[in-house]
């Protein structure tokens, strides 16, 4: 598929469920993709991208930002506290805030640097031990902690278990967001972004469906 096809599918789904056209932000997930493919998508006019790793983004995006205006890069992968400063310098949004230690580090850096990227709290909706994210039962308290630090919490993020119906996880994420008065919902990837749009996603994170399969070899 291509960027324009994915965008068309999103617009069609927005329309089908009665959402305003353009309500959903498409994050093109460029992790591991060769620079030529990323540049092609930039040349088509797309400006919002997602990366999983601080180091990889640091090697790629400063140059693209010089070449193309208005680029926004979102961090989607787990963030270690010792890379928080570099992440704040590189990214316009961070989707993986999931523990008090990281919240405290970001708040300290925000005080020192005078700005902070938009933050999404990652919720481990499937309660998978290998996955990052705050557990659903702990989400309300963690959101309150982040707010008491005056962190700019704009949304919640989830990655549903690979072998389960994603809609149940999207619904749970939406429920937690609603009862906490949070607007943003970062949910939906290549295989399920249309369902996510139907269930209220404000940000979908689509990689392979835009760029092709990732080659990790
Ligand atoms: C890699 C990744 C994506 C994109 O996955 P695709 O299946 O290629 O669309 C989305 N979100 C996160 C957190 C990811 O790590």
What is the topology?
Blueprint lengths: L2 H14 L8 E5 L5 H9 L4 E4 L2 H5 L2 H7 L4 E4 L8 H7 L2 E5 L2 H14 L4 E5 L13 H13 L4 E5 L8 H14 L4 E3 L6 H6 L4 E4 L1 H4 L6
Parallel strand pairs: 1-2, 1-8, 2-3, 3-4, 4-5, 5-6, 6-7
The structure holds pyridoxal-5'-phosphate.
Pyridoxal-5'-phosphate (PLP) binds next to strand 8 and helix 10.
Give your account of this protein's structure.
This protein is an alpha/beta fold. The protein has a single domain, classed as Alpha-Beta Barrel (TIM Barrel), CATH 3.20.20. It has ten helices and eight strands. It has helices at residues 3-16, 35-43, 54-58, 61-67, 84-90, 100-113, 136-148, 166-179, 193-198, 208-211; strands at 25-29, 48-51, 72-75, 93-97, 118-122, 153-157, 184-186, 203-206. The chain has an eight-stranded parallel β-sheet. 39% of the residues are buried. Bound molecules: pyridoxal-5'-phosphate. Pyridoxal-5'-phosphate binds at residues 29, 31, 52, 76-77, 159, 189-190, 205-209.
**CATH fold description:** TIM Barrel
Tell me, what's the shape?
A: globular
Order of SSEs, N→C?
A: HEHEHHEHEHEHEHEHEH
What helical percentage do the residues reach?
Answer: 40-55%
User: Gyration radius, to the nearest Å?
Assistant: 17 Å
End-to-end separation in angstroms reads: 22 Å
Number of strands: 8
Mean pLDDT: 97
Structural class: alpha/beta
The total domain count is 1
Strand content: 15-25%
Hetero groups in this structure are:
pyridoxal-5'-phosphate
CATH H-level superfamily title: Alanine racemase
Q: Which sheet architecture does the biggest sheet show?
A: 8 strands, parallel
The CATH architecture would be Alpha-Beta Barrel
Low-confidence stretches: none
Count of alpha/pi helices: 10
